[in-house]
Amino acid sequence: MTPLFISVLLAAVSLECRAQTDNVLQPKGDVTATEGEAVTLGCQYISSSSNYYLFWYKQDGNNSPKFILSRFKVGSGKTEDEDKFSSTLNSTSRSVPLKIQKLLLSDSAVYYCALQPTVTGNTKTLYKNLWSKDNTILYNIH
């Protein structure tokens, strides 16, 4: 199988709408994956709420972020493409990793993990949180 470099930028979207104790954390670094394989993208969260919601978004090119899936502490979430994406919210480890199956070149994108409340039109907050304090990319996969 021909190696395919899947380029993914992960950004921990820490939203300013809630207390400072609520945020998501994603590891820094590069990830390389091969076409047809699967990759898991990490996301850990901290929430002061007893009923929280976590979301994954995909943004390719200059397009707006698109909803991939949601996971809730209480109840179930929604997944746009269950054959492609999966995730399980683990409240013990406080993580909600995103697994992407059957990788294609079109999976090269920016992937966001977000804790509710999420961005619904306020892209200034979203883009502000794409960069670390020293203006370096938080997470780049290729």
What does this structure look like?
Helix content is 4%, strand content 31%. The chain is mostly beta strands. Strands 6-5-9-1-10 form a 5-stranded mixed β-sheet, with no helix packed on it. A 3-stranded antiparallel β-sheet has the order 3-8-7, with no helix packed on it. Strand 5 (53-59) and strand 6 (66-72) form a beta hairpin. It is globular. The two termini are 17 Å apart.
Give the number of DSSP strands: 10
What's the order of the H and E elements?
Answer: EEEEEEEEEHE
Q: How far apart lie the N and C ends?
A: 17 Å
Low-confidence stretches: 1-7, 9-19, 122-142
Outline, from the CA principal axes? globular
Instruction: Characterize the quaternary organization of these chains.
Output: single chain
Q: Helical element count?
A: 1
* Rg calculated over all Cα atoms: 15 Å
Which bin fits the share of residues in helices? under 10%
Major sheet description: 5 strands, mixed
Question: Structural class of the helix and strand makeup?
Answer: mainly beta
**Strand ordering within the main sheet:** 6-5-9-1-10
Determine the strand fraction and express it as a percent band: 25-35%
Q: What number is the mean pLDDT?
A: 75
